[in-house]
Amino acid sequence: MIEPRKHPISVPASRLAPLLDQARTAGIDLQGLSRGLDLPVELAALPEVNAISLADYYRLQNRLMILIGDETLHMSARQLLPGSTDFVLRNVVDCETLTEVMQVIAKTYNLLHGGEYNTVNRRSETVDYLIDDRNFPYTDQQTAEYIYFSIECILIFLHCMLMTVSSHAGGAVKSLSIRRPWPGSDCGHLGYWDAPIKFGADVYCVSFSRAEAEAPITLPPQHALSSNAVYQKIVDAVAGKYARHGELQSMTARVRDSLERGVIEQTDVATQIGVSVATLRRRLAKEGAGFRELRREVLNDTAKRLLAEKRSVSEVSDALGFSEFRAFNRAFKDWNGVTPKAYLRQIHG
Predict the structure, then answer these.
(1) Which residues, in sequence order, are bridge partners of residue 126?
(2) Cis peptide before 196 (omega within 30 of 0)
(3) What is the pLDDT along the chain (349 residues), one digit of tens a residue?
(4) CA-to-CA distance for 295 and 128, rounded, in angstroms?
(5) Torsion-angle region of residue 38: left (phi > 0), alpha (psi -120 to 50) or beta?
(6) Cα–Cα distance measured from residue 79 to residue 71, given in angstroms and rounded to the nearest whole number
(7) Among candidates 204, 189, 244, which has minimal Cα distance to 120?
(8) Phi, psi of 180, deg, nearest 5
């Protein structure tokens, strides 16, 4: 078996289980599927393999949507036939700005899904694309965790759909808001985003620079607007981010990226980056840094930010992964010389 490519932006094998279960139910040969997509792992060997790249995940998703005959992959009680995304893209041909493109995409997907789940809001400095899935007709077998992951992947798909329409979308994202309360060690897919991420939001939101969103655009030829083009854009975009993570970022920056996404155990960070723990330590030392110190800095910065957002001390303790409330109290006092409650009094009065 070929070992999977390891990158900072990846999808853990556990995320693939629902897709592979559907494939088996549909009688799809997983070994043949692996060969047909030229995947670096045998799908039948999962979950022994830790993860696959985000690009390979989307390639797998695209093929299964076609084979199963549902672009929602049975997440929705309302099936979307293959070709639905092509239909959405055909409707943007008369748009003159990204804002108009987003409005058409939102309106068309609402039509297909039978509800007002997508909206576009113009604000003073941003144009926001929102997805409110709180009343979406999910099928019964979907877990909250899998729904978080799936909608987060839809946001990436949306961004690449917009980049397929216009290059203006590439660097236009200002921030991202998602409903997931807090990242865990299996959220490598969020490494796709270069913009700040807010967790625990009521609805999903991608905020774009209004200046970029309302600048005139020139659409590509109609034949270039297709779901296949979007998936290729995802592969290209993720590949570019892999290169940037792997070649331009220091090890210190890469470790910080992982820590800020909630991956706080040294072995998990090393796995996500794609190096051994020994290599991680050696390269950090070469840059004059240490894992323990970086983790303390990131956890402390995160704790202060959450407390400033008026989160309770117990919520912050849980969010940072402390096994008990008192352990967080001790750690915070070691870092700052005051307890979390005293810090709250200092900043909130």
Answers:
(1) 209
(2) no
(3) 222 233 457 888 778 888 888 888 888 888 888 877 777 666 766 655 567 888 889 989 988 998 889 999 999 999 999 889 999 999 999 999 999 999 999 999 999 999 999 999 999 999 999 999 999 999 987 899 999 999 999 999 999 999 999 988 888 899 999 999 887 767 888 888 988 899 999 999 999 999 999 999 999 888 788 888 898 888 888 877 655 544 445 788 778 767 776 677 888 777 656 678 888 899 899 889 899 999 998 888 888 888 887 788 888 888 787 878 888 899 999 999 999 888 888 877 6
(4) 33
(5) left
(6) 7
(7) 204
(8) -55, 130
CA dist 275 and 240 (Å) reads 20
DSSP string of 218-274?
-PPPGGG-SHHHHHHHHHHHHHHHHHIIIIIS-HHHHHHHHHHTT--SHHHHHHHHT
* 340-348 vs 325-336: helix crossing angle, rounded to 10: 60
Q: Are strands 173-177 and 197-198 parallel, antiparallel or unpaired?
A: parallel
CA max distance for the chain? 63
Secondary structure of residue 291 in the 3-state scheme: helix
Under a CB-based contact definition with an 8 Å cutoff, are residues 215 and 168 in contact?
yes
- CA gap 195, 130 in Å, rounded: 16
What's the CA gap between 326 and 316, in Å, rounded? 12
Assess contact for 212 and 126: CB atoms under 8 A. Answer: no
- Distance of alpha carbon 214 from alpha carbon 231, whole angstroms: 25
pTM of the full predicted structure? 0.71
Residues pairing with 212 in the sheet: none
The conformational region for residue 163 under phi > 0 = left, psi -120 to 50 = alpha, else beta, is: alpha
